[in-house]
Write a structure and sequence with these properties.
Layout (H helix, E strand, L loop, with lengths): L4 H4 L8 H16 L8 E7 L2 H12 L7 E7 L5 H12 L3 E7 L5 H11 L4 E4 L5 E2 L3 H12 L3 E4 L3 E4 L4 E4 L11 E3 L8 E3 H7 L9 H11 L4 E4 L4 E5 L11 H4 L4 E4 L12
Parallel strand pairs: 1-2, 1-4, 2-3, 6-11, 7-12
Antiparallel strand pairs: 4-10, 5-12, 6-10, 7-8, 8-13, 9-11
Helix pairs in contact: 3-4, 7-8
């Protein structure tokens, strides 16, 4: 098994973005040299905002993983012409795309569970429609899953886009929820990759309206499964403004940031380079 990333380097809160990317490149190379073929994976997405669906479909088109299936849960919305055009691009890549309509009364957990039950992959990847995923996202997760044989693999929350402030903060630490390449009981919910067998035994994502990620993770660990948290670069968690959001909510991100960029952090690892 690969030695945890922070044990291989002197990475700390002072580690530069360039150094972080260089270390990630080494990890990718070491893992991919051993992989001859990727297992099948099903991507499940619950969506209720047409604009966010367009955004996430565009990111799925750019994924470098050569083979996956995509299941969309349309939560009281319809596909528009832009969605259909992006789906055609995915289908041209031989990606099987299925979409299912769910009424407004449906719960997030219920939609995700239904999609999982309809899926066929050996692994299931949960994607959130309002976050940002680099083109290597699915491959990175499968790389780590193959090497560690973990029941769940996901990313650390190292990059957060604070939309009302129009800044992306970089948060890195060798300890806590920002630490990477280690066994943990938590990963970012929008980056969960889980073995199908483990997800089924856990009851998928339950039927709740909230905390669906915690539902899966806690039930997997209760069943004896292990969770591996890989590097966060390649994923940006988006915090938007809602009536539940107060200015103080952003302090934990700003006070704990190593550095920040105006707008979405621009770099190929996020698929955001200009």
């Amino acid at each position: 098994m690969l030695v945890p990333l922070q044990s291989n380097t002197s990475m700390s809160r002072n580690t530069s973005f360039a150094t972080e990317l260089a270390e990630i490149s080494k990890v990718r190379k070491a893992r991919r040299e051993k992989i001859k073929e990727y297992p099948s994976v099903s991507v499940v997405i619950s969506t209720l905002r047409p604009t966010d669906l367009e955004n996430i479909l565009g990111q799925m088109v750019k994924q470098t993983l050569p083979r996956f299936e995509l299941l969309l849960g349309l939560h009281d919305i319809e596909l528009n012409s832009k969605h259909k055009a992006l789906i055609k691009k995915l289908q041209a890549r031989k990606v099987k795309v299925s979409h299912f309509k769910f009424p407004k009364s449906s719960t997030l957990g219920g939609i995700l569970t239904a999609l999982c039950e309809k899926s066929t992959g050996e692994y299931i990847s949960k994607i959130d429609d309002d976050d940002y995923y680099g083109p290597e996202h699915l491959r990175d997760l499968l790389d780590a899953a193959i090497e560690t044989n973990a029941e769940v693999v996901g990313r650390a929350m190292n990059y957060v886009y604070l939309e009302p402030l129009s800044i992306t903060v970089r948060r890195f630490s060798p300890t806590g929820i920002q630490a990477v390449e280690l066994w943990s009981d938590w990963v970012c919910g929008g980056t969960i990759l889980v073995k199908r067998s483990a997800a089924k035994a856990a009851g998928w994502f339950g039927n709740g309206t909230t905390a669906v990620d915690r539902y899966l993770l806690s039930h997997v660990t209760e069943n004896g499964g292990k969770i591996w948290r890989t590097f966060g670069a390649g994923y940006i968690y988006r915090r938007t403004f809602t009536f539940h959001t107060y200015v103080t909510n952003y302090s934990k991100y700003l006070n704990n940031a190593n550095e920040q960029r105006v707008g979405i952090w621009p770099d190929p690892i996020f698929g955001t380079a200009k």
